[in-house]
Amino acid sequence: MEFGAASSRVLNSNHFLCLIPNPKKFQSQIDLPSLNLRLPSNASFQISSSISRRDCTFKATLKDTSTSTPTVKKMSGNEFELSSLTALSPLDGRYWSKVKDLAPYMSEYGLIYFRVLVEIKWLLKLSQIPQVAEVPSFSEEAQSYLQGVIDDFSMNDALEIKNIERVTNHDVKAVEYFLKQKCQSHPEIAEVLEFFHFACTSEDINNLAHALMLKEAMHTAIFPVMDELIEAICNMAKDHAHIPMLSRTHGQPASPTTLGKEMAVFAVRLSRERRDMSQIELMGKLAGAVGNYNAHLVAYPDVKWPQIAEDFVKSLGLSFNPYVTQIETHDYMAKLFHAIIQFNNILIDFDRDVWSYISLGYFKQTTKAGEIGSSTMPHKVNPIDFENSEGNLGVANGGLSHLSIKLPISRWQRDLTDSTVLRNMGVGLGHSILAYTSTLQGITKLQVMRRYGVPEPYEKLKELTRGRAVTKESITQFIEGLELPKEAKSNLLKLTPHTYVGAAVELARTVDVAVNLVNKTKVFEIHSVKS
User: Fold this and answer.
1) What is the spatial distance between Cα 145 and Cα 150, in angstroms, rounded to a whole number?
2) Which residue among the candidates 144, 359, 374, 474 is catalytic per the annotation?
3) Can you tell me the distance from the alpha carbon of 264 to that of 271, in angstroms, rounded to the nearest whole number?
4) Do the Cβ atoms of 201 and 122 come closer than 8 Å?
5) pLDDT tens for each residue of 364-402
6) Bridging pattern class, strands 244-249 and 58-64
7) What pLDDT is stored for residue 287 in this prediction?
8) SS3 for 156-170, per residue?
9) Which of 76, 185, 250, 375 is catalytic?
10) Element (H or E) spanning 15, and its range?
11) What angle is formed at CA 475 by the lines to CA 473 and CA 479, rounded to 5 degrees?
12) Whole-angstrom distance, CA of residue 203 vs CA of residue 105
C-alpha cells in the first residue's frame, strides 16, 4: 500500500481513512480484509471508488476529525457574585475561616475605617491648637459625637463611602465627604466641616492608616499565633528532651543528639525573630504635600507644625518620621516584612525537618476518623500540614519580599506605585497565618514512635526470661528472632552488662543536684504547712 505521507497518529473513532485509488491502476473492487489494515473496530473510513484489480496501488490520506478542545460551558464574570467559591484568592475562599481574624485590619474595610479614625482625630487635634481660632475647643458632647462615629463605624458606613467614591473617583476624598455628611446635623461640628482634612495630602491620611492597620494586625492576629507556635515547639523540646536521636549531617548519620534539643534550636531561633520584630518602630508623618508643611505655615505661620505633627502621630501609638517627601518612606515596612520573611524561613526549615523525621519514622501522625490521606492509597497518612505550611510560607515570602523591595523606592517626591502594592499587605500576612496554623495543627498530630515498632516487646521478653536462666546463647537467639533492621540487631548483640548502662553514670555524678532539689521541695512543703 502506498501512502502519501507517514503518520504516527493512532486511529480511533474520531478519525477516518480516505483511500484514494491511483486512477491508472484500479480495475476491480477492493477486498478490504486483504489490505490488512490495523484499525480499531469502531474506526470509520471511506473509499472514494471501486477498484477492478487487487494488485493495484493507491494512496491513503489520514484526516483528523477530532476537536482540539473539549466542549466547555461558556461563562461570564457578570454571572458570578463574590463568594467562597468565586473568590480569586484562596484566602478569601477556601481558607477564609483560618485567616478571617485579619479582615478587620487588612481589608478594604479596615483601610477605610482607619482613614475615618485619622481624619476625626486630626480635627480634634486642630481644636486643641489655640492659634487655629476657626476650630474652637469642642464641648464634651461634640467630642463624644465624633468618637461615636469611630466607635460605631459599620459595614454600611464603609459601603456608603464606596458609593461616594464612585462619584469622586478618589478614595480619600470620599472619606472626607462622608464625614461632612455624617456631622452636618451636629450644630457645633457643622461650623468647622471644612477643617476636615485641613492642610493634609491624601498620603498624610493613608500612611497613618496603613501604619495603624499593621499595628493592629500584628498585635491582634500575627503575634498571638507566632507566640502559640513558639510555645508549642518549646513544649516539644521539653517533652522530648530525653529522647535520643541519631543526628545527620550532609544527609549521613552523625553524632547522637536528642529530639528535644533539636526542637529547642527552632524555638530559640523563632523567638529571637519574634522579639526583634516587636521592637520595630511603626512610623508615620503628617507633613503635607511634599513633607515641608507648606500649606500649614501659609495658613498659620505662628504654629510649630513639626511639633504638632509629632505629637499627633505619637498620640496614635506610632513613631514620628520628620524627614519625608509626600509619602512616608516605608523603610520600617521593609524592615518589618524582612523580619517576617526570616521568621517564615526558619519555620520552613522546621517544617522540612519534621517532615523528614516523619519519613524516617521518628514521629508518627495520629489520624482523625473520616479523613482521607490519599485518593488511591488509603493506608497513607501524609504530612500534609507541614507541606501546606511550607507552601504557604513560600507564597507569603514572595509577596512580602516584593513589598519590602518595592515600597522604599518612589520617584522623586512621590509616585503612585506604592498605592496598589500596599493593598496587598494582607496577602503576605494571610498566607503567613495560614502557614502558622497548619504547622500548629501538624504538631498536635505528632507522636514519637516506639523504636522499630516491635509489638508487645515486654510480653516477648517476659516469655523469654520468666522462670528461666538467661544465657548469652538464649539472648542471642531471642534478638535474632526479632523483626528488626540488621544494624539494630548488630547493636543489640554488642551490648554487655558493662556497656548497657545508659545515663546511669551521669545520674550518679549529679545526685547532689537531685538531692538538693528534693530537700528544697520538702522545706517548702513544711513551711507551707506551718504557715
Assistant:
1) 9
2) 374
3) 10
4) no
5) 888 776 665 555 555 567 899 999 999 999 999 999 999
6) unpaired
7) 97
8) HHHHHHHHHHHHHCC
9) 250
10) strand 15-21
11) 120
12) 18
Q: Residues 89, 95, 98, 102: what is their CA dihedral angle, to the nearest 10 degrees? A: 10
- Which of 84, 114, 86 has the alpha carbon at shortest distance from 99? 84
Arithmetic mean of pLDDT, 309-326: 98
Least confident range of 41-55, 188-202, 205-219, 400-414:
41-55
pLDDT at residue 322 above 90?
Answer: yes
* Amino acid (one-letter) located at 349: D
Give 4's contacts (C-beta < 8 A, 6+ positions apart). 59, 60, 61
pLDDT over 50 at 16, yes or no: no
Bridge partner residues of 320 (DSSP)? 284
CA nearest to 464, candidates 456, 454, 455, 474 = 474
Q: Helices marked H in 279-330 — which ranges?
A: 294-299, 305-315
- Residue 109 is predicted with a pLDDT of 98
Q: Return the C-alpha cell found at 498.
A: 558493662
CB 454 within 8 A of CB 481: no
In this structure, what C-alpha cell is assigned to residue 407? 515600597
Catalytic residue status for 250: yes
Report phi then psi at 476, rounded to 5: -60, -45
Q: Which residues contact 343 (CB under 8 A, 6 or more apart)?
A: 226, 270, 273, 274, 277
H or E element at residue 405: helix 384-406
Cα distance between residue 421 and residue 113, in whole Å: 19
> CB–CB of 332/280 below 8 Å?
yes
Tell me what pLDDT residue 457 has: 54
Beta partners for residue 17, in sequence order: 45, 62
Length of the chain in terms of residues written: 531
Match 475561616 to its residue by C-alpha cell. Answer: 97
Q: What span, in angstroms and rounded, lies between the C-alpha atoms of 235 and 260?
A: 9
Least confident of 124-138, 366-380, 444-458: 366-380
SS (H, E, C) 31-94: CHHHHCCCCCCCCEEEECCCCCCCCCCEEEEEEECCCCCCCCCCCCHHHCCCCCCCCCCCCCCC
Give yes or no: 527 in active site.
no
- Per-residue pLDDT of 273-289, as tens digits, reads 999 999 999 999 999 99
Quote the cell numbers at residue 8: 504516527
Mind listing the pLDDT tens digit for each residue in 461-505?
556 656 666 677 877 887 787 777 787 778 777 766 544 434 344
